[in-house]
C-alpha cells in the first residue's frame, strides 16, 4: 500500500509532469571536462622521427611513423600518424615524446620527467646509428677534440679519447640515440649476440619443412643444446659469467623476428637495397641481390618493401633452461605466424535469410 | 528439464551460459559455461614492459578497471621495496572509492532491472552519472582511466577538482537515503528479496566467496583493513550481515557506498601536499599483492627480470562468487525469475573471470587456451 | 506513400541487441549508461532488448574470441531484415590492445559480418555513441527496408 501512495505522490508533483511532457537531453551530456583526453593531436613540424611514441604505445596498430616523399628541394618529413580505430586515448605517446614543444598533444600534459620515459637507459657512451639523426649537436658540445668523429655520414664516439663527461648526452635531442652504458667488451658482446641469433635462425631454418606441415592450432617446439653455443662464445670472450648473462638476455628478449629469404622468387628489382637501414642487402651485377645475415637488424623493413614475397618473417619465442651440464634453449613457434605462401581460402558465404 | 539462458539473453549483460535444471517452475540446480570472452591477457603481458602491460591490466575488466592498475602498480612497488608518496596514496584511495561507488550502484541497478523494478533501476543509474563525472573530472576518462603508473599517479588533482568532487558527494549523500528507504521498506521488493538465494556462512567459506557476497553471509573480511594507506591514515568500519540472502547482499552494497563516501570526504579533508610520483627501481624478483576490488579480493602475482614481465597471474573475485552463485545460491529457488535475479545479485563480471591457463601435469605443458578447450583437452588425455 | 509511412515507422522504433564478443565490458556499461535518465536513449525510440530475434540493430562490442567465430554469424542470420550492425569501440574495429602476439582474438568483426557504422574510442563516451547511432541508424534502416522489399 505504501508504495502505491508513494507512486501517487511522485506523479502528482509538478516537476514530474513538466519533465514528462518536455523530455529532452540536457546539454551537459556533450560537454567534456578540460582534462578529457581525446585522440592525440599531431604537430608535424616538431617531429624528429625518434620513434619513442611507437615504442611506448600499448596498442599495436595505433601509431605509425610515416615519411613524406623526397623532393628536389628538401628531404621528406617524418611524422607519426594516429589510427583512431585503434587508439585507446591513454596519452602515453604525449608523455614520452622527447621534443620541446611536443609533437603529440593529448589532454592535459601531465608530469613529464626524463626518468619516466620508456626507452631503457643504461650506463660509456655509444651512439645508436639507427636512431641518430645526424644533427651533430653532440659534436659541438663535446669538449675533447677527436672524441666524437664523423666518418662517411656516420657519427661515432671514440672510446679511447672520451672522458665520459656526459655533455653529449645532454645535447642530444633524440631519446635513446646516444646511450650511456657501463659494460666492458662491447664489440665482443655484439659479436656473441649476432652469433647466437644467427645460430638460432639456422636451427629453425633446418626444420622449415616440419614447421610448414604442422596443423595451425599446434605449437612447434624444439630444443637446442647450449653447449656448442657456449663453447663458441667462450672463444670470443673468455668471461663465462658474462657470456652466460648475454645469452640469457638474448633469449629473454629474442621474441624477435626471424627473416626468411626465398631467393627463387627474387626478380632483382633492387627495391629493398635502398630501404635496408644497415646496408645489409647489397647488389652487384655478378651475384645479384644478396642479404648478409650477420649484418641484419631484423627490422623487417625488407618484408614490407618486397612486392614479390622474397623476404618473409615470423616470430618465435625462446627460453633458456640453464642446468649445469645439459643446458638447452627451448624454442616455440606458432605456425599461424609463418609467412603466408599459399592464397588464403575464401571465407564461407553467409547464409542469407530470405 | 534443462533451461538454458544465454549467452545472449535479455536478462544478462555479458555473455555466459546458465543451465538451470528445473522441475516445473522450481529451479533445482544450476550449471555455468564460461569461455565467451577469453582474450589471453596474461599471455600477451609476458615479455612486455610494465608501461605497456598496465594498460592491458586495465582492460581485464571494464567495470572495476581502476583496482587492476592499482594492484599491478603496487605489486611492482613491493618488488622494489619502495612506497609511493603520501599524496599519491591518498589520490589512489580517492579514485578507488569513487570507482567502488559507481560499481556498487551499477550492480544494484542490474539487480533491480532483473526484478523488473524499472523505477529504482533508473534512479540508481541517475545517481551513478555524477560519480562518473567526478571520475572523468579527476582522471580524464570515464571507464578506462589510465591514471595509475608504477611509482604514483599521472596527474595531480587541483583544489578546484577536489572541491567539485566534494560537492558531488554531498549532493549524492543528501538524496541517497530516499532510495535506500524505497528498497528497504518497499513491500514488493522486500518480499521478492528476503530469503531468496540463501548462502549460509559455511557455504560461503566452502565456495570461497569474497567481497560483498561473502560479507553478506557473515564473513567479516575486508582487505582494506590490511592495506597500509587505509590502516595508517583513514578511519572506516567493515560492513557485514548475517542473513546471506538477496536482500542482505543488496543492502550490504548500499551501506558500503555510505562508507566509501565517508572515506572520500576524509581524503579530501586530509590530503597532504607533496609529490605525486617517484622513480621506482625494481630489479628481478617475484611478489604478490592483494587488494579489495568492488567485488572482493583481487591478487596479482608477478615475476620480472628487472625490465620485462616473465610470468604474471591474476586472480579476480568474480570466479569464486559466480561459483558460489551456481553451486549454492541457485539451489532450490522457487521460480526461474528469482533465479535470474539471484544471479544478478551475485554481481558477476565475466570479463574478469576469463583468463585460464591449462596445466598438463603429465607432460608439463602450459597452454593459454580458453576454458572451453578444457573439455576437449581432457578427452584427448582420456583417449591416450 | 506506403513506403514513406514504413520509413517513419522503421525510423521511430528501433530495437537493439547488444553482443559482447570478447571485450573488457567497458563499452557495454557505457551502453547501459545510455539508458540512464541523463542520456535517455528511449526518448529517441530506441529500446535495448538483447534479443537477436527481434533486433533491428546489432551492437557489437569486443574483438572476436574463439567461441564467437561461428556464433556471431548465427546471431547475425537470426536477426530479421532489415538489420544494421554497429561496431562500438576499438576492439571490433582493430582488436585494440588484445590483437598482438599471444592474444586469442580474431578481429576485426567485419571479417565475419558486414558492419554498417563504427564508433572508435576505448571506450567511446556515451554522447559519442548516441550521436553516431542517431546519425546513422534510422537512415540506414529505412534505406535497407526499401532495398529488401
Strand order of the largest sheet of chain A: 9-14-13-10
Q: In sequence order, what are the helices and strands of chain C, one letter per element? A: HEHEEHEHEH
Q: Strand order, biggest sheet of chain C?
A: 2-1-3-4-5
- Per the CATH scheme, the topology name of chain C is Rossmann fold
Shape of chain C: globular
Number of strands of chain A: 14
Percent of sequence in beta strands of chain C: 15-25%
- Indicate the low-confidence ranges of chain C by residue numbers: none
Largest interface: B-C, 46 and 44 residues
Level of helix content of chain A?
Answer: 25-40%
The CATH architecture of chain C comes to 3-Layer(aba) Sandwich
Strand count, sense and barrel status of the largest sheet of chain C are: 5 strands, parallel
Radius of gyration of chain A, Cα only, in angstroms? 28 Å
Residue windows where pLDDT falls under 50 for at least 5 positions of chain A? 110-123, 340-354
Q: Helicity range of the residues of chain C? A: 25-40%
- Which CATH first-tier class of chain C would you pick? Alpha Beta
Overall form of chain A: extended
Q: Briefly note the structural class of the backbone of chain C.
A: alpha/beta
Q: What is the count of distinct domains of chain A? A: 3
Number of structural domains of chain C: 1
* Element-level helix/strand string of chain A: HHEHEEHEEHEEHEHHEHHEHEEHEE
Outline the structure in words.
Chain A is of the alpha+beta class and 354 residues long. Chain A has three domains: 41-116, Alpha-Beta Plaits (2-Layer Sandwich); 125-180, Alpha-Beta Plaits (2-Layer Sandwich); 186-337, no CATH class. Chain A has helices spanning 2-12, 14-21, 52-56, 92-96, 137-141, 167-171, 186-206, 208-212, 227-236, 240-253, 271-275, 301-305, and strands at residues 41-42, 63-67, 78-82, 104-105, 125-127, 148-151, 154-157, 178-180, 220-225, 257-261, 281-284, 288-291, 311-321, 328-333. In chain A, the strands form six sheets. In chain A, strands 9-14-13-10 form a four-stranded antiparallel β-sheet. In chain A, strands 1-4 form a two-stranded antiparallel ribbon. A two-stranded antiparallel ribbon of chain A has the order 2-3. In chain A, a hairpin with a 6-residue loop joins strand 13 (311-321) and strand 14. In chain A, helix 7 crosses helix 10 (240-253). The longest helix of chain A has 21 residues, at 186-206. Chain B is α+β, with helices and mostly antiparallel strands. Chain B has two domains: 49-329, Cytochrome-c3 Hydrogenase, chain B (Orthogonal Bundle), CATH 1.10.645; 357-384, no CATH class. Chain B is built from 15 helices and ten strands. Chain B has helices spanning 41-45, 50-58, 65-80, 86-114, 118-139, 159-185, 187-193, 201-206, 211-216, 228-233, 246-270, 318-329, 336-345, 350-353, 372-383, and strands at residues 2-5, 17-23, 26-33, 148-149, 152-153, 284-293, 296-305, 309-315, 358-360, 365-367. Chain B has a three-stranded antiparallel β-sheet. Chain B has a three-stranded antiparallel β-sheet with strand order 6-7-8. Chain B starts with a strand and ends with a helix. The mean pLDDT of chain B is 86. Chain C is built from five helices and five strands, in the order αβαββαβαβα. Chain C has a single domain (14-124), classed as 3-Layer(aba) Sandwich (Rossmann fold). The longest helix of chain C is centred in the last third of the chain and has 22 residues, at 126-147. In chain C, helix 1 runs antiparallel to helix 5 (126-147). Chain C is globular. In chain C, 38% of the residues lie in helices and 15% in strands. With 149 residues, chain C is an alpha/beta fold. Chain C has a five-stranded parallel β-sheet. The interface between B and C is large, with 46 and 44 residues.
Amino acid at each position: 500500500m505504501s508504495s502505491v501512495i508513494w507512486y501517487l505522490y511522485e506523479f502528482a508533483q509538478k516537476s514530474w509532469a513538466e519533465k514528462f511532457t518536455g523530455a529532452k537531453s540536457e546539454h551537459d551530456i556533450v560537454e567534456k571536462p578540460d582534462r578529457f583526453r581525446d585522440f592525440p593531436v599531431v604537430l608535424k613540424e616538431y617531429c624528429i622521427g625518434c620513434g619513442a611514441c611507437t615504442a611506448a604505445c600499448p596498442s599495436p596498430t595505433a601509431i605509425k611513423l610515416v615519411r613524406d616523399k623526397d623532393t628536389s628541394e628538401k628531404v621528406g618529413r617524418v611524422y607519426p600518424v594516429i589510427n583512431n580505430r585503434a587508439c585507446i586515448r591513454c596519452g602515453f605517446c604525449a608523455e614520452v615524446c622527447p621534443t620541446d614543444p611536443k609533437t603529440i598533444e593529448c589532454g592535459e600534459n601531465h608530469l613529464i620527467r626524463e626518468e619516466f620515459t620508456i626507452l631503457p637507459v643504461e650506463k660509456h657512451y655509444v651512439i645508436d646509428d639507427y636512431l641518430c639523426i645526424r644533427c651533430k649537436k653532440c659534436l659541438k658540445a663535446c669538449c675533447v677534440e677527436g672524441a666524437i668523429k664523423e666518418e662517411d655520414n656516420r657519427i661515432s664516439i671514440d672510446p679511447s679519447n672520451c672522458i665520459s663527461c656526459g655533455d653529449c648526452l645532454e645535447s642530444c635531442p633524440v631519446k635513446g640515440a646516444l646511450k650511456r652504458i657501463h659494460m666492458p667488451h662491447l664489440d665482443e658482446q655484439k659479436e656473441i649476440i649476432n652469433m647466437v641469433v644467427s645460430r638460432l635462425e639456422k636451427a629453425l631454418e633446418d626444420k622449415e619443412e616440419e614447421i610448414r606441415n604442422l596443423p595451425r592450432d599446434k605449437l612447434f617446439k624444439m630444443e637446442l643444446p647450449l653447449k656448442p653455443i657456449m663453447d663458441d662464445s667462450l672463444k670470443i670472450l673468455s668471461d663465462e659469467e658474462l657470456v652466460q648473462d648475454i645469452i640469457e638476455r638474448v633469449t629473454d628478449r629474442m621474441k624477435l623476428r626471424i627473416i626468411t629469404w626465398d631467393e627463387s622468387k627474387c626478380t632483382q628489382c633492387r627495391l629493398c637495397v635502398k630501404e635496408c637501414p644497415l646496408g645489409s642487402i647489397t647488389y652487384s651485377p655478378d651475384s645479384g641481390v644478396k642479404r648478409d645475415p650477420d649484418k641484419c637488424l631484423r627490422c623487417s623493413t625488407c618484408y614490407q618493401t618486397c612486392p614479390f614475397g622474397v623476404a618473409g618473417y615470423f616470430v618465435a619465442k625462446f627460453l633458456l633452461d640453464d642446468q649445469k651440464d645439459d643446458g638447452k634453449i627451448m624454442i616455440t613457434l606458432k605456425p599461424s605466424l609463418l609467412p603466408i605462401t599459399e592464397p588464403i581460402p575464401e571465407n564461407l558465404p553467409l547464409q542469407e535469410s530470405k | 528439464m534443462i533451461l538454458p539462458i544465454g549467452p545472449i539473453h535479455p536478462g544478462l549483460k555479458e555473455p555466459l551460459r546458465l543451465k538451470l535444471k528445473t522441475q516445473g517452475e522450481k529451479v533445482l540446480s544450476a550449471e555455468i559455461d564460461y569461455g565467451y570472452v577469453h582474450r589471453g591477457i596474461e599471455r600477451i603481458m609476458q615479455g612486455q614492459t610494465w608501461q605497456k602491460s598496465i594498460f592491458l591490466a586495465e582492460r581485464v575488466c571494464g567495470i572495476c578497471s581502476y583496482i587492476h592498475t592499482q594492484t599491478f602498480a603496487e605489486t611492482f612497488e613491493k618488488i622494489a621495496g619502495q612506497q609511493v608518496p603520501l599524496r599519491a596514496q591518498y589520490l589512489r584511495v580517492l579514485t578507488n572509492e569513487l570507482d567502488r561507488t559507481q560499481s556498487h550502484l551499477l550492480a544494484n541497478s542490474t539487480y533491480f532491472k532483473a526484478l523488473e523494478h524499472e523505477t529504482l533501476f533508473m534512479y540508481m543509474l541517475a545517481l551513478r552519472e555524477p560519480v562518473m563525472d567526478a571520475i572523468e573530472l579527476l582522471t580524464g576518462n570515464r571507464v578506462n582511466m589510465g591514471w595509475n603508473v608504477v611509482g604514483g599517479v599521472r596527474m595531480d588533482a587541483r583544489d578546484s577538482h577536489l572541491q567539485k568532487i566534494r560537492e558531488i558527494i554531498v549532493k549524492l549523500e543528501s538524496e541517497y537515503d530516499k532510495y535506500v528507504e524505497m528498497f528497504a521498506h518497499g513491500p514488493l521488493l522486500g518480499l521478492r528479496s528476503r530469503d531468496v538465494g540463501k548462502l549460509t556462512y559455511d557455504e560461503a567459506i566452502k565456495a570461497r566467496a569474497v567481497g560483498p557476497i561473502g560479507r553478506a553471509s557473515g564473513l567479516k573480511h575486508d582487505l582494506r583493513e590490511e592495506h597500509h594507506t587505509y590502516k595508517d591514515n583513514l578511519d572506516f568500519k567493515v560492513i557485514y550481515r548475517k542473513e546471506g540472502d538477496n536482500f542482505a547482499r543488496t543492502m550490504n552494497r548500499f551501506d558500503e557506498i555510505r562508507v566509501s563516501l565517508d572515506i572520500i570526504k576524509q581524503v579530501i579533508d586530509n590530503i597532504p601536499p607533496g609529490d605525486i610520483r617517484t622513480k621506482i627501481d625494481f630489479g628481478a624478483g617475484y611478489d604478490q599483492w592483494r587488494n579489495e576490488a568492488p567485488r572482493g579480493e583481487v591478487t596479482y602475482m608477478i615475476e620480472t627480470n628487472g625490465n620485462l614481465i616473465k610470468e604474471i597471474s591474476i586472480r579476480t573475485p568474480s570466479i569464486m562468487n559466480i561459483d558460489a552463485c551456481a553451486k549454492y545460491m541457485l539451489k532450490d529457488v522457487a521460480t526461474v525469475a528469482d533465479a535470474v535475479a539471484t544471479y544478478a545479485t551475485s554481481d558477476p563480471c565475466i570479463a574478469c573471470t576469463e583468463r585460464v591457463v591449462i596445466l598438463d601435469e603429465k607432460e608439463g605443458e602450459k597452454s593459454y587456451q580458453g576454458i572451453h578447450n578444457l573439455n576437449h583437452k581432457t578427452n584427448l588425455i582420456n583417449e591416450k | 506513400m506506403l513506403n514513406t509511412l514504413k520509413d517513419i515507422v522503421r525510423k521511430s522504433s528501433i530495437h537493439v541487441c547488444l553482443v559482447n564478443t570478447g571485450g573488457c565490458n567497458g563499452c557495454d556499461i557505457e551502453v547501459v549508461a545510455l539508458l540512464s535518465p541523463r542520456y535517455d536513449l528511449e526518448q529517441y525510440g530506441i529500446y535495448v532488448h538483447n534479443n537477436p530475434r527481434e533486433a533491428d540493430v546489432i551492437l557489437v562490442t569486443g574483438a572476436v574470441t574463439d567461441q564467437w567465430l561461428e556464433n556471431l554469424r548465427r546471431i547475425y542470420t537470426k536477426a530479421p531484415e532489415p538489420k544494421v550492425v554497429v561496431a562500438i569501440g576499438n576492439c571490433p574495429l582493430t582488436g585494440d590492445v588484445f590483437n598482438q602476439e599471444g592474444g586469442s582474438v580474431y578481429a576485426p568483426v567485419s571479417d565475419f559480418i558486414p558492419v554498417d557504422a563504427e564508433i572508435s574510442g576505448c571506450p567511446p563516451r556515451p554522447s559519442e555513441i548516441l550521436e553516431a547511432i542517431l546519425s546513422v541508424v534510422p537512415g540506414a534502416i529505412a534505406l535497407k527496408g526499401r532495398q529488401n522489399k
